[in-house]
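Sanity check record (used in CI):
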Amino acid sequence: MDQVHTRAMEALQPFIHLTKSSSATSPRFVANIITNATTSPHTYVFAELLEQPAVQALQSPDTPAELRGYLTLLKIFAWGTWQDYQQTPDLPSLNEEQARKLRLLSLLSLAATIKPITYEILIKLLSLSAPSDLETLVTAAIYASLITARLSPATTPPTVNVTSVAPLRDVEPTSLPTMISTLTAWESRCGSVINDIEAEIAKIRADSAQRRTKEHARVVVIEKILAGWNPETAEASLLPEPIARGGSRKLGWKPRDIGAAFKNRDFFGGSNKREFDDDGYFDEHADEFEPIESGMDIDEAPGSRVGGLSSQGARHAKRFLGKKL
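Expected output for PCI domain-containing protein:
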């Protein structure tokens, strides 16, 4: 679509150069330039031609009345429609090419403002006599890259589905204040949205910083706990209280015996369901077990003491430890 606008601007340049020639002082010569520019098949923008002093001079009181209408005609080709031409009096008549050009330009404006655009509306606004004339005009606009559209004559009602319009219509100067007001309101809404987004970003960053602070404090606490942890003290806390207070030495236990006790979780009421049997484990259904021959030499005579234990204490230790110890 941008290439179409570029070609249209290039097609207008020869007519602009003519308005700067010495002959442009003649109102009729300028009127002929306007007629040729609006008839040319590749010219669709006319604002630059309108700005030329020779063209603006047509509104002078010295200009013949029959030639003043050419300036108004050029304005209609720049930003007007076919209806504007029909409703404006004292305008020059159009040749066939000019009429086709103005209908094409009007189609661009209507396609950008009316949704959906039906056959009935276009036939009425463009003063066409039959649907076939409309289809011919729309097809010409499509092949000229003025619009991207699809004809749907079988729908109810028949429609012209326009998806894009080339930027070939000029802007009327009197519409600029309205456009500026609309753009200002849009800018204000955009600014409000940006402020909301920035506030949300700030909140997310604050929450993230707070989470990092809590995580850092947790890590510091864990590091302090690990720094004061003593493996030997922690292991003693897992032993039965008599053993933790040195009872293992009183019972004649050696370090390897304590290690074996740690390996058997049933010793501490763990989840291991195995009991010593004849090989040194409990019988599963036995409430009490008989002493099993131990490698320890203990005198069981009444009142005798072995290793600082009475015979009763020795029997208890023998029963408790079993052959596996």
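Residues 2-165 form one domain. If this sentence no longer matches the regenerated tokens, the check is flagged for review.
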